[in-house]
Sequence to fold (99 residues):
Amino acid sequence: MEKTNARFMRRVDALGRVVIPKALRDALDVQPGQAAEMYVREGCLVVQSWTPGCVFCGETRDLSDHLGKLVCARCGEQLRRRAAPATLHRRSRPEARGA
Ligand SMILES: [Zn+2]
Fold:
């Protein structure tokens, strides 16, 4: 990531779009096609490259898919501990069906 203190003025277009100058995209490591996270902090728009993270704690390492959501190893372990009793109760016994 490059450092820059440059300031730019850009107009917001009719659809609310603003072009992020290349120098700032490069400094933020935001590339075309990549997701960028935006939010307001202390009255300023913050734009930063978006990295997928755990839906519970935001951790970005050791992620796995849990029912279509990214979950880190630690939160995944907590989910498994809490889900275990319910999973046991929901199990069906196929041998008892269709007799
Ligand atoms: Zn987590």
